[in-house]
Amino acid sequence: MENDIRIKAPFDKKTAASLRAGDFVKITGTIYTARDAAHKRMIETLDRGEKLPFDLRGQIIYYMGPSPAREGRPIGSAGPTTATRMDKYAPRLLDLGQAAMIGKGKRSKEVMDAVKRNQAVYFAAIGGAGALLSKCIRASEVIAYDDLGTEAIRKLTVEDFPCIVVADCEGGNLYETAVKEYCREEM
């Protein structure tokens, strides 16, 4: 869409503060993938007092487990995973400087509080559109936990990766406002 907001990843709190729930965004730059098993391992790493495999500050983590790459492509289908599966890990990572998450579906109150507290953002990617989303991924490299297969942490280079801001740093929540707006329209 021509009114999309274009942002560079990683990004800072100033960029996060400029985004509002409902904004359409296209992300260009570096993002990381991690799902359940990788999140669990990151928390165990932190619990042991060790460093994570990448610096979280300003980073976006995409909750995705890619399919194998087809010939000539850096990655296969790359659709979002249901975000609630990372809810028990997300607040701690946000408190350590993670700037944003990309997934699908609602989040817990604890995650929403952590988004607001840390001036972060929760983006949604369109579920079921993994093949289309993969066309925005220019490079993919496993950087940690290779033994986890599709759940390994990957560093992705993306260009114009489309997302919608679901939760913003002011406490805006598209899932709540959209339902209220829809119900008001129905009357």
UniProtKB/TrEMBL annotation:
This is Fumarate hydratase subunit beta. The keyword Lyase applies. GO terms for molecular function: hydro-lyase activity. Residues 4-177 form the Fe-S hydro-lyase tartrate dehydratase beta-type catalytic domain. It comes from the Bacteria. Gene3D superfamilies: Fe-S hydro-lyase, tartrate dehydratase beta-type, catalytic domain. The keyword Disulfide bond does not apply. PANTHER family: L(+)-TARTRATE DEHYDRATASE SUBUNIT BETA, L(+)-TARTRATE DEHYDRATASE SUBUNIT BETA-RELATED. Keywords: Lyase. Belongs to the class-I fumarase family. InterPro entries: Fe-S_hydro-lyase_TtdB-typ_cat (IPR004647), Fe-S_hydroAse_TtdB_cat_sf (IPR036660).
